[in-house]
């Protein structure tokens, strides 16, 4: 599941890291090449929830960052601390497959990225999980001047619970400043198990992002292909007469990762709304239908758009007066189960596409967002239990 942000307090984060560093240094000075777990027990009083099994300590030194590109932090010196001992590695990705993840495991992750003094432009940090590479934005980021010529610091602190099948993680950074001036002068993080509880009938979560294809069609350009960098739906009467016009959007996700023989608890489509208009007097809704035949984002038009199943898979009241918010469409579980076995995606439209006069209703959502705004891409979240 997505991480839960705990704190952006730099002093608190640095204290947590310093304590873990000090613990490891103490083990090494005592010639404990493979320190037993009880040595960590002595440090448990420093944590509200004591670590139960093991911890990571990750550190890296200065490295340059390409402009406008997500770059994995590499050359990480990492210490893995477990009941069975401690190992030392140098890599960019950390494997957690040795951890017992058949239970619901929660990790406390705290750390800080320190940028050079001359860092400029936007700086962002994200946490990347494997093998499906779910991306969690950690910082927009909030930065603090460290002082003493030590640059700017972007702290992060969150609790993370791996999705089923997760085998590891890495950290990435992004910048759009004046390359090659921007660079990391220091990175550190501690990753510690803070909680476990049995799964039993707790639903499992699967987040699917981005879509495999998306597009919109327009009745006023009925033979044209419009792409999908932005998703539109619209209903309006053409000024000066000439009848009404409408736009519809199509979205399709890869559902192959959803296991077979499961019970669907819920499935929700998340779209990030960037604009809307509504100068009609009648209430209207956004309806979602299951598409019943194949289509291609590069060739779909109003004239050749595929048909849809007559029963709606979801409906949402037209949200007015707000922008830059998430619209969440919860699907009918029966219709979604049918879509898994025959997946052609969904179509979104206004319930009433003939609103008369010169009134207009319009909704716009992010389609194919440019980095670093990946978190705004359309997303499908599925909760299920195994039979």
Q: In whole angstroms, how far apart are the ends?
A: 21 Å
CATH superfamily placement of the largest domain: Minor capsid protein
Main sheet specs: 11 strands, antiparallel
Would you identify the CATH architecture of the largest domain?
Sandwich
> In total, how many domains does the architecture comprise?
2
Which segments are poorly predicted (pLDDT under 50) over 5 or more consecutive residues?
4-8, 24-52
- Share of residues in helices: under 10%
In terms of DSSP E residues, the strand content is: over 45%
What is the global morphology?
Answer: globular
Radius of gyration: 25 Å
Specify the structural class: mainly beta
Q: Can you describe what's shown?
A:
- This protein is mainly beta and 387 residues long.
- It has two domains: 4-200, Jelly Rolls; 206-386, Jelly Rolls (Sandwich), CATH 2.60.120.
- Helix content is 9%, strand content 46%.
- It contains three helices and 24 strands.
- It has helices at 10-29, 38-41, 333-341; strands at residues 4-5, 55-64, 71-72, 76-82, 85-91, 94-95, 104-115, 123-130, 135-139, 144-145, 152-160, 168-175, 183-197, 204-208, 213-218, 230-237, 244-252, 262-278, 285-291, 308-317, 325-330, 346-350, 360-366, 379-386.
- Strands 14, 15, 16, 17, 18, 19, 20, 21, 22, 23 and 24 form an eleven-stranded antiparallel beta sheet that branches. Strands 1, 2, 4, 5, 7, 10, 11 and 13 form an eight-stranded antiparallel beta sheet that branches.
- A hairpin with a 6-residue loop joins strand 10 (144-145) and strand 11.
- The protein is globular, with a radius of gyration of 25 Å.
- The protein starts with a strand and ends with a strand.
